[in-house]
Amino acid sequence: MLRFEIPEQKKLTNEMLIPIRWGDMDAMGHLNNTLYFRYLEIVRIAWFDQIGCPVNPQGEGPVIVNAFCNFYQQLEYPGDVLAKHYVCNPGRTSLDTYVTLERSDQPGKVYAAGGAKLVWVDFPKQKSVPLPERLRALAD
Q: Residue 75 domain-assigned?
């Protein structure tokens, strides 16, 4: 089985509980695969809000240029997912984010892991721009 490894240089930035809803299940009785990406998004956006970088379509912000998720075990209703968000590898205009998804009643057991490479963009100009220094400092 392919195993995802979060880089050692990672920095844990955020943790949150996300309830698994009945309607999130697919016909096979487990969490629909599209919802894993939604959970990754929820914890990533919560982190941006917490650090004072809310998404601003009239200004600057992150754009995902690559996203992935590795599924190790099925998540099923009922329960809560413990999402742990990490960042690393800040570049001139980009940053790597990683997320592990565990059940809150089984801490340490990773059910899925994924992430995204983000590029900081000036939205009106549609051009990449340098990461804000305060964001870089949080990722170093």
A: yes
